[in-house]
Amino acid sequence: MTTTLDPLDFSSWWAPFREDTRPRWDCLPHHEDYADLLENCETLAYLIRSYTVYSMTCAALGHPGGSFSEAEFLAVLYNYALRFDPSEPRWPMRDVFYLSKCHACPGLYAVLAMFGYFPMQDLSGYGSWESHLESHPDWNTTPGIEISGGSLGQIPGVAVGRALGMRRRGPEHYDRMVYVLIGDGECNEGAVWEAFMAAGHYGLDNLVFVIDSNKVQAKGFVSRDMAIEPLADKLGAFNLDVYETRNGHDVGELVDLFTVLPQQRRGRPLAVILNTVKGKKVGQCQFNPNWHTSAPRSIEAAGEWLEELWLTDGRRLGIPPEFPAALTEAIDIVPPAHENPDDISEAQA
Length: 349
Known about the structure:
349 residues
């Protein structure tokens, strides 16, 4: 089916909820615009997943499982909680967000593009040569990225240093927040717990550790590979104030939580356990370790994912029925820039 709809132009069915993303404000359940905020966040999460499928398939690489599990969190963070300015990415009074599980950057790239940090068309170059959208983020080339990353476990310590540095800059910076999203499998890394310990020692109540507890890591299930439960008790023992979601995909629960967190600064770092589903919203991916790393293997497979996402969420959110087909048609798988230079004739011993 051929359509004239431009799938990278979402302006007719979604726009950022806040006209000005610099101030912090509360939206409470009794407020007139509360229901609109929730629907807007749901729509944003749907589009994050859809554009993630698009960019990963163009690149023939990516991490759908972790990108899908973080979608609602990213939607609420950027649509409601985080203070930032896409026109001035280094605005000195911004809040800071670090994606520590950097392999899930396709979801972050989608939301950054949608908020205007760079053109939507750039998503098609994810992971390719000469693109500024590396397969792991590079803060030197991508607006909106606060630090380059790749090796798991390193960025929570950076977040501790950033939060401590903010506090030492003086009272005008005391209201700023640092958020860092960590994978539950990443919590196998000892450096993560060193960061928790340091944050507790320094009483960094301007720092929020968010653990994406999607239960699955690269080669299996967290509970079997290296269990981290009872996670809440362990975080509390490191002198963190711990909040645990019932459903990390419920935008209402997330909006209410991130309304409360800035009011809970009592000399202890904050930790949020997001109970999520790896690969959420695509049945083939859900709780499936095989889709931790693998992107859709063909345009047709991506089209099936996009259609499933529309049937699950897009239809009820008012997304045009032509959108998934149009986005599928827009996919252009970028071939490697050169052949594999290695001549491998047998398996390594």
